[in-house]
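Async update (no meeting this week)

Hi team, since we skipped the sync, here's where things stand on the single-chain job. The sequence we agreed to prioritize is pasted below, unchanged from the tracker. I ran it this morning and attached the output directly underneath so nobody has to dig for it. Comments welcome in thread, and please keep replies under the output.
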Amino acid sequence: MSYDDATYIEPLSCVIRSLERSNTDIDDSVAVIGDGRMGLLHLQLLKMLGLKQVFVVGILEDRLEIARKLGGVTINATKESPAEVIAKQNAQGLSTVIDTTGVPSAINDGIALLGSGGHMVLFASSPPNSRISLDPNLIHYKEVTVTGSYANGSKMDFVKAIDLIASGKVNVQNLTSHNLPLEKLADGFRLIEERKGLRVIISPHPK
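Output:
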């Protein structure tokens, strides 16, 4: 495994924990909110588990193109309503929604996408003092579950992540948009802030 690939071990171990918390089954209908690297790692694991249809909701077309290549059904939230698109294919609502953005409005929208007995996983942290506003009847009548997933669950999640990356079952190479030397560290932060980089790796000793 290359050093670049190894930088994905910890993030992937967190995604493994997230899916464990979601109780996702092969027959479930799932949406991942967020088209960043964590959303795309979720997508790969869900497809690896055998799920035929995984929606990926995002706002950046270049990232959604990667999601399509990875087998996701993409929805550009700046151009179409995720609720309307999903309702056409899943009138009863989704089994699982995983939010990888931490954006309160996205969390609200995600819970509304769930069907009866559905699971909502809050994978990403939100800005300090964030609040969400929910109709409690969405939870009551649909009997949905909202849970958090923070970090990884155990050292075995690391072991699983190492195996998945080393074996090529999870492709991380296409998630790295930039590899910069240490002296361009500031450029790397700027790329992330401007959303021009999917994952930027800083190499102290580039080849």
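Quick observations from my side:
Strands lie at 30-33, 54-58, 73-76, 94-99, 114-122, 145-148, 178-181, 200-203.
Residues 177-207 form one domain.
Reply here if anything looks off.
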